[in-house]
Amino acid sequence: MERRRAILDAAEALLAEQGYEAATLKAIGERAGIPTASMYHYFPDRHQVDAELLQHHVQQLDAIVNGVLEDPGPSTLEGIADALVDAVLDYFRGHRSCTELWFAGRNETLDALVRGFDEAQAERLWLLLFERNLIAADTPRHVAQIAFEVANRFFDIAFRRSPDGDDVTIDEGRRMLTAYFRTYAPAEA
User: Fold this and answer.
1) What is the reported pLDDT for 57?
2) Sign of torsion, CA 50 52 57 61?
3) Measured in Å, how far apart are the chain's first and last C-alpha atoms?
4) For residues 28 and 16, what is the distance between their CA atoms, to the nearest angstrom?
5) 137, 164 in Cβ contact below 8 A?
6) pLDDT at 106
7) What is the pLDDT of residue 187?
8) What are φ and ψ of residue 137, in 5° steps?
9) How far is residue 85's CA from residue 41's CA, in Å, rounded to a whole number?
10) What are the chain's domains?
11) CB atoms within 10 A of CB 6
12) Given its phi and psi angles, is residue 95 left (phi above 0), alpha (psi -120 to 50 degrees) or beta?
């Protein structure tokens, strides 16, 4: 377990410091002080290291987003969108390894983790917006899923433009999400 943790810590540090391309299995092993041949005893390939790290980040983000969605404070579309964007943005800014895996290191396994996160959170968001009467009752559930896909894309652009996430791109993404959800607002009586 100690060596496995050392491998994951080394991978996380390399991803954060040098980016996805630099975090090869060989480089991870060197950083962890484990010969490359021995690395395969703990992880069959680099994708398994990436998947375990991203799974940890997904669990952390899941708890953070759940906290935002359970907070009774934000009661407008803008407030909820801002709270969600701010929470994810803060996490991404504090965990560069996560943004590297989320955006740069995409493969089938990582895509499935991100998609699973998006689907679960989109369902929660749809329910929240419906319960707070911020979207019409006949709003299709996939609307929230589309919003999460769009948010992924603007975060991707923001973190490609700047390692800290370009604020202009983030602000445009906020506007886009809020405007999109407004098209599903309940009709005025």
Assistant:
1) 96
2) positive
3) 61
4) 12
5) no
6) 74
7) 85
8) -60, -30
9) 39
10) 1-44 (1.10.10.60), 46-183 (1.10.357.10)
11) 17
12) beta
Determine contact, residues 70/35, Cβ cutoff 8 Å.
Answer: no
* Phi, psi angles (nearest 5°) of residue 101: -75, -40
Q: CA–CA separation, 146 vs 160, rounded Å?
A: 21
Angle 76-164-49 from CA coordinates, rounded to 5°: 100
Given a contact cutoff of 8 angstroms between Cβ atoms, the answer to whether 71 and 83 are in contact is: yes
Largest CA distance in the chain: 69
Closest Cα to residue 98, out of 19, 7, 44, 6? 19
Please report, in tens digits, the pLDDT of each residue of the chain (189 residues total). 889 999 999 999 999 999 999 999 999 999 999 998 899 899 998 999 999 999 999 999 999 999 999 998 888 999 999 999 999 999 999 999 999 999 987 788 999 999 999 999 999 999 999 999 999 999 999 999 999 999 999 999 999 999 999 999 999 999 999 999 999 999 874
Residue for token digits 């390399």? 14
Query: Which residues, including other chains, have CB under 8 Å from residue 169's CB and lie 6 or more apart?
Result: 154, 157, 158, 161
Is the pTM for the entire model greater than 0.85? yes
Tokens read off for 22? 């630099």
